[in-house]
Design brief:
Elements lengths: L1 H21 L7 H20 L4 H8 L3 H10 L4
Helix pairs in contact: 2-3, 3-4
């Protein structure tokens, strides 16, 4: 389970750097921004690990295949 904590640490460090780079400016829409920024690379890696098999990738992600297809389409990946 260390992979999960590694991912959490990466997100934490990235957010800390983001806030430092804001240099006092107030962030806006942070939640949606973070989700959008991490979703595409996650989909890319999972699709590669699933050898392009959407059913297998959906299982890995814990979502149904139609949801995966919509997300892939939203990101211009199909």
């Amino acid at each position: 389970m260390s992979g999960r904590s590694d991912i959490a640490e990466c997100v934490k460090h990235s957010l800390e750097r983001y806030f430092r780079d804001l240099d006092g400016e107030a962030p806006s829409g942070l939640y949606d921004m973070v989700l959008k920024q991490m979703e595409r690379p996650m989909l890319e890696v999972v699709m590669r690990e699933a050898a392009g098999n959407q059913t297998r990738a959906a299982d890995m992600l814990g979502m149904n295949r139609n949801t995966l297809r919509r997300k892939l389409s939203d990101h211009g990946m199909i």
